[in-house]
Amino acid sequence: MNTKWNSLQQVTQEKAEKLGSAHQVQRFHRDVDETKDWISEKDEALSKDDLGKDL
């Protein structure tokens, strides 16, 4: 009985670690997407020819 309990605890720990790793990967991809969007916005703003008018 103790052997099965220990085995179950080990499997549970391994799944928790994998889930944590998957969450980190998902967060990384979200951060990459947000950074790409930010870069696109800045690139678009910099590529505009509208430089304003002098008074």
Automatic annotation (TrEMBL):
Span list, region Disordered: 1-55
Taxonomy, superkingdom: Eukaryota
Transmembrane segments: none
Lineage of the organism: Eukaryota, Metazoa, Ecdysozoa, Arthropoda, Hexapoda
Annotated Polar residues bias: 1-13
Comp. bias regions, Basic and acidic residues: 28-55
Biological source species: Allacma fusca
InterPro entries hit by this protein: Spectrin_repeat
Protein name: Spectrin alpha chain-like protein
